[in-house]
């Protein structure tokens, strides 16, 4: 594409590849009806040409010189040889240019009353390929009652721009005109329009029309009665002056009839606005009305009540409308109209500014939060600080509390083992300018709360610490309520997970066969009432009382309970058992027990006087009846029976007598009583079959 006034040349090489020479040929355009392209395309050479056989060449140049805008075209270039036209190549091109016009070159305004104004519009269109700037020759309008808007600008390709012409005569004249008002265009010729009109005397105003309404609220005037007493149809064009007043552009009144006309008042600014309404009549007269508009403060864009649960963030979307044809920025403020409980703290948050595009709407987020029940009515204002115009909403927030379905601030999950404590801190915020106190409450006995109120200084944060110490394993849910006289109720959902209790300290026993050892198992009772604990051991070598009673516990770790455990081994080596202490109100206490059974230790000596006897108590420690043998290694000592069947875990009295010493010096005689069982059961190793109990004897001869 080429612009007008410029030129471009293209060259093409023609080659003769035939075996014959070509001579007396011409390069020409295809004859066509398009004379425009023939005038702007120049082909060289214009004289006859000759091409030698087998490779003869010549160069053809085509020069394109457009003088105005030209649509895309295609032209064929031919080689003329005698009567024969042979197509050689095609030329394609176009020319970009301006095509800017007005939709009319005349604009009559007709009769306009003195000091009245009338606006007419024309469309400036660009149908060309190139945009350009435009400007009106304002010097032609200097002494005329005509004005033009805009006075200059830029029009892009394909764009239409509305040009407004205002006619506002100040002097009575029948012919007022501006001939060929020039609109200068960049890169092309100017366009012109002739403006004409007349100025007539306006009769004194018949009456004054007063319209009152809130700013940005449309209001209609009382009907204005127009009467046509003639036999011809009237088509009236009302002339309305004054900002914010409007009405129908034409009024058609049938012959000998009347019609009502209503004036619309839509003020965009507060205050008083003046204007006129003029009806030019076909008979040369006119009807003039003075118009006064009173724009009162704006009405609320919305007035509503919202019920909002306490301790729950709430967002209200407010539609903000820009009534102007240009962007507006509003500064946002609010004021409290009334509040039934001024001591209740509420929070109202929003952005300080909001920008709204021309003639559009945008939602504005208003955040409300209340700590306690109250009713608060607020006025939120959106003000254009440049024009001082504003819109506002009247909103009443009614904060409510449903104690049965109170909103949960947070869910807290705590996990620990039975009788093990875990603590948690809740961060509480005090937005008030003075100190506030919080008191906790929870119905579950495993939750331990601070004994005193928690105080938080003004405009700061603090922590509320509580402890979870379960007495039984399992998973439950409960509520924790933290209440403040100033800030209301905070509800938290607690998920409590109590894992089985860890084992208590292991008790280690060590005793020889036939002997016993007693150790004390101590545990802390957290039962809040008098409780009987049931004690069980899963091994017969350990003995414990069936029950033990604990007094009620007033606070954690204050009531220690002791249980005596007896270990009486029935076999050699290690044995393991478990002591379980349980009650209906708490989880079990588990004590691991480890016992070590050793070989019996010799006992004695038992002193026996000559001719007398003594009794030695021996117990069958095994879980079944066994036959035991009794042997003395000195013939001066005797046992009543050499063997005896002893029932399981029963004692037997062995009677040992001493005959006396037959020596001259009557020295003390020493001996051993050996108790054995040929078949020992319950043994843990092979050596148990030879277990013996040895009792030393001492015989005294007086």
TrEMBL record:
One of its GO terms (cellular component) is axoneme. The keyword Cytoplasm applies. Keywords: Cell projection, Cilium, Cytoplasm. It is found in: Cell projection, Cilium; Cytoplasm. InterPro entries: Hydin-like, HYDIN_VesB_CFA65-like_Ig, Ig-like_fold. It comes from the Eukaryota. GO terms for biological process: axonemal central apparatus assembly; cilium movement. This is HYDIN/VesB/CFA65-like Ig-like domain-containing protein. It comes from Rotaria sordida. The lineage of its organism: Eukaryota, Metazoa, Spiralia, Gnathifera, Rotifera.
């Amino acid at each position: 594409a080429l612009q007008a006034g410029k030129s471009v040349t293209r060259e093409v090489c023609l080659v003769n590849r035939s075996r014959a020479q070509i001579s007396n040929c011409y390069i020409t355009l295809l004859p066509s009806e398009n004379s425009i392209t023939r005038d702007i395309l120049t082909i060289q050479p214009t004289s006859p040409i000759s091409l030698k056989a087998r490779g003869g060449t010549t160069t053809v140049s085509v020069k394109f010189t457009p003088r105005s805008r030209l649509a895309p075209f295609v032209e064929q270039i031919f080689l003329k040889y005698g009567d024969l036209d042979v197509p050689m190549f095609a030329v394609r091109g176009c020319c970009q240019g301006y095509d800017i016009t007005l939709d009319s070159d005349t604009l009559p305004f007709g009769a306009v009353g003195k000091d009245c104004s009338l606006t007419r519009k024309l469309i400036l269109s660009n149908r060309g390929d190139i945009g350009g700037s435009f400007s009106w020759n304002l010097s032609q309008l200097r002494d005329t009652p005509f004005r033009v808007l805009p006075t200059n600008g830029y029009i892009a390709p394909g764009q239409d721009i509305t040009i407004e012409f205002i006619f506002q005569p100040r002097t009575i004249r029948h012919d007022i005109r501006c001939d060929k008002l020039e609109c200068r265009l960049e890169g092309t010729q100017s366009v012109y329009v002739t403006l004409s009109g007349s100025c007539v005397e306006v009769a004194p105003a018949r009456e004054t029309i007063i319209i009152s309404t809130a700013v940005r609220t449309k209001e209609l005037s009382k009907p204005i009665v127009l009467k046509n007493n003639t036999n011809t149809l009237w088509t009236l064009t009302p002339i309305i002056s004054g900002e914010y007043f409007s009405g129908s552009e034409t009024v058609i009144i049938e012959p000998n009839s009347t019609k009502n006309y209503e004036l619309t008042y839509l003020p965009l600014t507060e205050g008083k606005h003046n204007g006129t309404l003029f009806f030019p009549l076909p008979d040369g007269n006119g009807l003039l009305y003075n118009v006064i508009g009173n724009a009162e403060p704006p009405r609320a864009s919305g007035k509503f009540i919202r019920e909002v649960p306490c301790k729950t963030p709430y967002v209200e979307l407010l539609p903000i409308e820009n009534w102007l044809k240009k962007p507006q920025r509003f500064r946002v403020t609010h004021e409290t109209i009334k509040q039934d409980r001024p001591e209740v703290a509420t929070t109202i948050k929003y952005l300080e500014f909001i920008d709204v595009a021309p003639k559009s709407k945008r939602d504005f987020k208003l955040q409300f939060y209340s700590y306690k029940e109250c009713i608060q009515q607020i006025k939120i204002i959106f003000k254009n600080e440049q024009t001082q115009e504003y819109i506002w909403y009247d909103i009443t927030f009614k904060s409510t509390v449903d104690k049965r379905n109170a909103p949960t601030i947070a869910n807290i999950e705590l996990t620990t083992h039975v009788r093990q404590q875990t603590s948690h801190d809740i961060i509480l915020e005090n937005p008030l300018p003075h100190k506030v106190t919080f008191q906790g409450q929870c119905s579950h006995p495993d939750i331990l709360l601070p004994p005193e109120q928690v105080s938080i200084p003004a405009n700061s944060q603090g922590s509320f610490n509580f402890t979870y110490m379960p007495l039984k394993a399992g998973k439950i849910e409960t509520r924790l309520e933290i209440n403040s006289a100033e800030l209301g109720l905070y509800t938290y959902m607690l998920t409590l997970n109590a894992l089985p209790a860890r084992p208590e300290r292991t008790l280690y026993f060590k005793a020889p066969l036939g002997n016993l050892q007693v150790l004390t198992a101590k545990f802390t009772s957290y039962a809040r009432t008098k409780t009987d604990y049931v004690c069980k051991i899963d091994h017969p070598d350990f003995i414990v009382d069936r029950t033990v009673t604990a007094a009620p516990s007033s606070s954690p770790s204050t009531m220690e309970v002791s249980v005596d455990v007896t270990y009486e081994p029935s076999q050699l080596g290690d044995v393991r058992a478990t002591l379980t202490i349980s009650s209906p109100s708490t989880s079990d206490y588990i004590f691991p027990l480890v016992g070590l059974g050793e070989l019996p230790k010799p006992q004695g000596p038992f002193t026996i006087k000559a001719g007398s006897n003594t009794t030695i108590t021996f117990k069958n420690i095994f879980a079944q009846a066994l036959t035991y043998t009794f042997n003395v290694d000195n013939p001066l000592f005797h046992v009543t029976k050499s063997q005896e069947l002893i029932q399981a875990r029963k004692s037997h009295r062995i009677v040992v007598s001493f005959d006396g010493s037959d020596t001259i010096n009557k020295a003390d005689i020493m001996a051993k009583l050996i108790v054995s069982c040929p078949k020992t059961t319950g043994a843990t190793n092979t050596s148990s079959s030879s277990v013996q109990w040895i009792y030393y004897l001492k015989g005294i001869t007086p």
